[in-house]
Design goal:
The chain is mainly alpha-helical. The protein is built from 2 helices and no strands. It has one domain. The protein is 90% helix and 0% strand.
């Protein structure tokens, strides 16, 4: 795993926690921020996946 995969996964998980916390307290703003973080995290994770595939292909 590379750093983009790890950081992306952590941001995705953090976003899920933030979204659920927003639901618990009734804050739509926190829910939206959590969803945004999930999307950003998944995007970063996919970038890391592509980097790994490229790295593996050039070995």
């Amino acid at each position: 795993m590379n750093s983009n995969q790890v950081e992306g996964k952590l941001q995705d998980i953090g976003g899920k926690i933030q979204e659920e916390a927003g639901k618990l307290v009734g804050s739509e703003e926190q829910q939206v921020k959590g969803l945004k973080n999930q999307v950003e995290g998944k995007t970063q994770e996919k970038l890391g996946d592509a980097q790994e595939k490229l790295h593996d292909a050039t070995k």
